[in-house]
Amino acid sequence: MTLILGYYHKQYNLDFLLKLSKPDIYKMVFNGNILVEVERIWES
User: For residues 38 and 29, what is the distance between their CA atoms, to the nearest angstrom?
Assistant: First the structure.
């Protein structure tokens, strides 16, 4: 998931990955090939 998000925005990097709880679920919204929204939908 982090690799996919990182492809679209540089804020989703190794530091982001290390701060995730496991498991974690995010919803990504695209307009064509443009990432327009990321929402965390899992609260552990």
Answer: 6
Max Cα–Cα distance, the chain, nearest Å: 31
pTM, two decimal places: 0.68
Enclosing domain of residue 21: 2-40
Specify the number of domains making up the chain: 1
- How many residues make up the chain in this entry? 44
Alpha helices in 1-44 (DSSP H): 2-8, 14-19
pLDDT in tens, 1-14: 889 899 999 999 99
